[in-house]
Every structure is written in C-alpha cells, then in structure tokens.
Amino acid sequence: MKRRDFLNALGAAGLMIPVGRSAWAATGDNPTGAKLIVVMLRGAVDGLNVVAPVGDENYLRLRPTIGLSKPGTENGAIDLDGYFGMHPALASLQPLWQEKKLAFVHASGSPDITRSHFDAQDYMESATPGNKGTPDGWMNRLVQQLPGQSTPSRLLGIGPVMPRILSGSAAAINLPNGAAGTKANILDRPKIGAAFDQMYANDPRFGRAYADGKDAHKEVMEAAESHEMQAADRGAPLPNGFPDDAARLATLMRNDPKIQMAFVALGGWDTHTNEGAGTGQLANRLRPLGQGLAVLAQRLGPVFDNTTIIVMSEFGRTAKENGNGGTDHGHGNAMWVLGGGVNGGKVYGEWPGITDSTLNEGRDLAITTDFRWVLAQTAERHMRLGDKALARIFPAMPQKSAGFQLLRA
Q1: Which residues are CB-contacts of 151 (< 8 A; sequence separation ≥ 6)?
Q2: What is the pTM of this model?
Q3: What is the pLDDT of residue 202?
Q4: d(CA 332, CA 108)
Q5: Using alpha carbons only, how large is the chain's radius of gyration in Å?
Q6: How far is CA 119 from CA 110, 126, 127, 293, in A?
Q7: How far apart are CA 122 and CA 172, in angstroms?
Q8: Which pLDDT tens digit goes with each residue over 50-103?
Q9: Domain boundaries of the chain, sorted by first residue
Q10: Rounded to the nearest 10 degrees, how much is the dihedral formed by the CA atoms of 222, 228, 233, 237?
C-alpha cells in the first residue's frame, strides 16, 4: 500500500494521525507545564478597528462611516488608555484587560510587503518572511526545542486540515472543528479496530504512525470524556462556533498535561465591503472570537496562569475606508496576547501615527514591531528557551529588540 492510501484510509476512519518525517514516541509528560495557544485570523482582520486610535483626529477623518465612536457613546469603543479603544464587540475581554492579563502589540506584523493572503499567511506560519522554501512551521520547530520527551498530542491543531504552522519533523495531530473532534470513530468499534491492528500494527513503514495515532486518539477521548460528564451535570449546552471549540480545547488542555501547544484558525476577516463600525459585519465576527477567548481563559482555570494565547493575522487593512464601506489589504496590524504571565493592561509597540506622511505607502499602518519579536519573547520568557533554540525556531530574525517586556520572567 502506498503512503497516501494508508493516510487516506486512516483519515476516512477518523483517526488522528501524527504527521512529520519522524514522529516521536508517546512517552513522558510536559516537563515545564507552560502552554501556548495560537489563534490565526485568516483574511486579515482590521486591527485599526480592533484597537482603534480614537484619540487621534485623523482616525475618523480616514474612516467617517466605519470608524468607532469615542468611549461613552452608543456602540462606542471601550477605553483602554485614553488614546486607544477596543472594539465594543470584544466587551467579554474587558475583565481580562482590567486584570492585566490581556495586552495588544500595535503596528506589528510581517516586514514582507506582500498583499497576498496566501503568501502572507505562509510567512506568518513559517516565521520566515519572504522565504517560500521553508519546509516547516515555527510551532513545529518550537516543540522540537522543548525539554523532555513528547507524546503525539503535544502539538495539536483544530480545523479541517493540518495547518502549515504545525508541519515539520515533530509529530502533530489535528482535530476537526465542532463536537465531532472528540467523538468516537469507527476504529473504536472492537472488530474494526482489531482488523486495522492486524493490518498495520506491525507494518515496518506505517506501524509507528498507526500506533501513535491510536495513542493520541485514546488520550484525547479520555480527556474529553471527563468534560462531557461535567457538562451533563451542569445541564447547559455549549455555545456555537469558536466558543464551543474553545471550551473543548480548554477542557482537553486542562485534563491532559501532555497537550502543550495548540493552533486554531478562523476565517471571515476579509472585510472589503460593509465592514461596519460598532455594529455590523466586523462586530459579528469579533463577538464570538472575544467570547471564545474568554471561555478559554475561564475553562482553563488555574492552567491559564501558565498559558499564553497569541492572536495574529497575516496583515492589517488600509487606514482609509474604501468606497464600499470596507477596507482593503494593508500592512501593519495589532497582535493580541493573553495569559496569566502577560504584563497586560497595555498597548505595546512604537505607534507610528496615521497621518498622511507616516502611513506606509501613503495608505497603511506602518510596522514598527516585527511579529517574530513577539513570538520569540513568548518562547524565551514563557517557554524558557535560550538563544540557540530561538535561533533555530526563528532563523534570520532581526537582532533588534522589541523594546518592551510583554511577559513576566
């Protein structure tokens, strides 16, 4: 049987298969306890309306119909520091801001000038802007630098396909969105499972991947079963969409210490038309995103104290609204960082301004913080990695410091 046919057969059976050139053995727990969750907003979210410079007179001049009104007005921004305001649809995150467990890094992003969604997302996931030949994702490289042995579930993705950011030589597994991700599959039926065991368990080429896949599935199912019982006791259904996936992910990470890093991708952020201001299309996307992040923080419980969540997007959007009530592909954006170890309650980054003379190419928010500096600081201060490890994870990253301490040591 060809490798592709083998993978297709197991995929059809619903088995989570570790991928990579050399999957690790399923032994040992996470020795550090530090966890990392990355949420990718595919389509380029409008960071200038997520964290809006409402204190700048140029803001509403550039965005007369989609700009957020000042704090204290109907559907107005949520005041952050007197100059920046958070989109009102993210009100569920205000408690985390007040608790100093949420921060933003504005005017951040990839230094590459592409406006292609495909290329920009690839660069954000490989962490090698401008280099399309990088074979692996930065989260896969990161997990290889962590101490201790790993299990197939140490690196987890949630979505329809295995994402670029998790690809590489270390093992990773992927769960589908929704409740199906933690439901039994046909290999859980004794007769079918036994038949697959007979075919693949001792196969010299595929036996390792098959065994690791079964171990990962069993591990996730056991973690999920504990949650299902708790949910039944409370008698309340989980919300739909991302909050639902976030609740399941939090439960898995809380119940299974072997799950150390996770990645989730969410679409629908390419707001070329009818973006809206305090209400409308963007607000309708941001509301469940904020709710899901709040669910993650709540459901992780004490584990949240040792978890960092990063929200990023491939690039920002134009500072000036277009003729269709939307925004076009831009450059600089805002990264979100949440967690118990975050120096929160601040908007970080050197703010370049949004005057005609300071805009990138006369149209976009300029970038003053390379997104890799945020990732590297997380790997260093949260995951406790040294300079040599950082150089392997983020090759060719500029040596210039970000100039701020986003996380506590």
Answers
A1: 24, 26, 27, 28, 29, 215, 216, 219, 258
A2: 0.81
A3: 66
A4: 5
A5: 22
A6: 11, 10, 12, 27
A7: 18
A8: 999 999 999 999 999 999 999 999 999 999 999 999 999 999 999 999 999 999
A9: 31-146+260-393
A10: 160
